[in-house]
Structure formats: C-alpha cells, structure tokens
Amino acid sequence: MSEKLYYDDIEVGDIFTGKTLTMDRERMLEFAAEFDDQPMHLDTIAAQAMGFKDIVACGSYTFSMSSGSATKIWQEWHFLPSGLGIEVSFMLPLFAGDTLMGDMEITSKRLSSKPGKGWLANTFTLRNQDGKVALITKSNSLLLTRV
C-alpha cells in the first residue's frame, strides 16, 4: 500500500488481512521458560498427559503472535498509540508448526473527543492453517483523521 489510511478512509465492515506467521517450537519453548513455565508448555510427555498432542503454546505467546500478525494492518494506517480496552478469547490450542492468519473487521467507529483523531472498534480473528479460530480479540484503535 503506497499511502497510509486515515480514520476517514475506513468504514464499518471493512476487513483487513494481517501477516501470516508460523509457530516456531524453539521460540515457544524460550517464551514459556521465561514467562509461563507450566509443564504443558515445556514438556511433551506432560502435555500429552493433559490430552494435547505435543507442547501447547502458552496464551501470552499466542497473543504475541496475534499482535505480530495485526502489526501489518496497523502499519497500513495512521495509527496512534492507544490502549482503550481489549478483550481476548483463546479458542484453540496452538502447536509448533501451526500457520496463523489473522483478519481484522471494523465493527464501529466514532470521532474522538480530541480533534484530529478517531476510534475504530475492531474484532481480530486469528485462524490456524485449517481455518479453525484460535484466538479472537476485540479492541479499539486510535487513528488520525484527515482534518
């Protein structure tokens, strides 16, 4: 995309596609060892005893991957730092080798109380290579307006 989008360029119902990413076993293990060292994230046998086929990615790593996918979208917008609420739903365990694809749908929009800015409410859906939903986030993004 040659020109970044402003708040005014985006409509409710628009869908944007994020970056495709693959779950890397070594990165999953390193992340879990540092931030969430529960057995199902670090040990295959422990994960299998819990009913998983292999070690399962921890939720915070999965959320990080969703942010990595969504960053492609934010880079296409006149995006401003913002943090007005986020809702995260983990729907499916993820494993090393899974390929993730995300789409962001704009669900509503409103001008900010501060001139030159607008809020976009969105739902970001992260799917695995089989099209199954792994994670859903609902959040708000602050963008510059054209005026």
Question: How are the secondary structure elements laid out?
Answer:
Blueprint: E1 15-17, E2 21-22, H1 25-35, H2 39-42, H3 44-49, H4 59-74, E3 79-80, E4 86-90, E5 99-111, E6 117-127, E7 133-144
Antiparallel strand pairs: 1-5, 2-5, 3-7, 4-7, 5-6, 6-7
Description:
By secondary structure, the chain is α+β, with helices and mostly antiparallel strands. 25% of the residues lie in helices and 33% in strands. Strands 1, 2, 3, 4, 5, 6 and 7 form a 7-stranded antiparallel β-sheet that branches. It contains 4 helices and 7 strands, in the order E-E-H-H-H-H-E-E-E-E-E. It starts with 14 loop residues before the first strand and ends with a strand. The mean pLDDT is 95. The chain is elongated and about 60 Å long. The relative contact order is 0.25.
| Major sheet summary line | 7 strands, antiparallel
Termini Cα gap: 21 Å
- Tell me, what's the shape? elongated
Helix content: 25-40%
In short:
By secondary structure, this protein is α+β, with helices and mostly antiparallel strands. Helices cover 25% and strands 33% of the residues. The longest helix is centred in the middle third of the chain and has 16 residues, at 59-74.
Name a few traits of the molecule.
7-stranded antiparallel sheet; 7 strands; 33% strand; 147 residues; alpha+beta; single chain; 4 helices
